[in-house]
């Protein structure tokens, strides 16, 4: 690697000239260019060190990001995107270059559907065939301590299955508008090795940086996709929580708070006892607000959908523990499939049979949806069933949501503003890539989305 230092003024000047020449040349190199990714030590005056993440997630601006990496590195990740293996490259943003950073493709099954040469979409494999795939950029690569606008990682969601290009951004905005601790999301243009890759949704990574921004009580445990109870009603064990831990992993962590939550729910024998436990560990208004938004936008591929493949379980969520307040917070995640099943079940995999609080089939798994995939009624779970028992609160919060952030006037104006913001970037992608979203289809899907939202308001 080339190591860039800034110990003396003369060296700093040399570096400036050298990097300027390097980056200038990098803009003009051919696709098969190879270069050594430099180590650039910041001076401390860079804008990304001076401002916080509000700059990145400013809803009023569409910003452009550029990745530069050796062609051999790009070829490597293109050959097997589902491996999610990092390679080294550079992030260039508004005059600043952060190097090296880790670069990889990201996603679960849905992110790779139709975009790899492998024919089993349940087990993504093969080479990249779509012009864009979701990507994660690791700023804290190889022990880097300096952050990027207080962020450790950034991620670009390709939105390949979302013909509105708005699901992520609108869904997260609606959650946040109701006081739910959810990621921020905006759109972004992405260039890769000098070529326009396309329009992405830039969704806040849920990690310790997210915790620090979104919670006053910081430093707590963050867990991914582990529920306090199994679908059989037993508390999850300590190892399950340790395996799901995403912060504090190397600090002899205690998972006692969420573990005791599950254990007490398991032992609870009546609804009053269950609700007392829930109110002790959770903010009732916040969790019911989350449930209201989740059900009205039909986030059917999230925590409320318990898929059954042998055992039953849910996914696409995180938990954050407030270490001082001893409160546990549910965080929604991966919302690109939201809105799809509002008027009818358009997605063959994700539809949920039950409305909020309903159960069926004597709380045993049952097949449902066009694909007849087995699922389990979420409200058979003591925790979710407990939330559903707050009927008065649910009704009041739903009324507040429909007349406020979810109102036709507010949401339509927001959609129109975002559509205008990303129109040129969408047209640019259409003109650049043969597989990009057609602008006529996009505009039609925006109209359908508005119609679906109006339908949801009247349910």
Description:
- It contains 14 helices and 16 strands.
- It has helices at residues 9-26, 47-50, 71-79, 109-112, 167-177, 208-214, 238-244, 256-267, 271-281, 284-296, 382-388, 391-403, 408-432, 439-457, and strands at 3-4, 39-40, 63-68, 87-93, 96-105, 135-138, 153-157, 185-192, 195-203, 222-224, 306-309, 311-313, 317-322, 327-332, 366-368, 373-376.
- The strands form four sheets. It has a seven-stranded mixed β-barrel with strand order 3-4-5-6-7-9-8. Strands 12-11-16-15 form a four-stranded antiparallel sheet, with no helix packed on it.
Low-confidence stretches: 1-32
What is the chain-wise order of helices and strands? EHEHEHEEHEEHEEHEHHHHEEEEEEHHHH
Largest sheet: 7 strands, mixed, barrel
Write down the overall mean pLDDT.
Answer: 93
Describe the strand arrangement of the main beta sheet, using strand numbers.
Answer: 3-4-5-6-7-9-8
Number of helices: 14
Instruction: Report the C-alpha radius of gyration, rounded.
Output: 23 Å
The class by helix and strand makeup works out as: alpha+beta
Q: How many DSSP E strands?
A: 16
Our measurement of the CA-to-CA distance between the termini, rounded to an integer number of angstroms, reads 60 Å
Shape: globular
Q: What amount of the residues lies in strands?
A: 15-25%
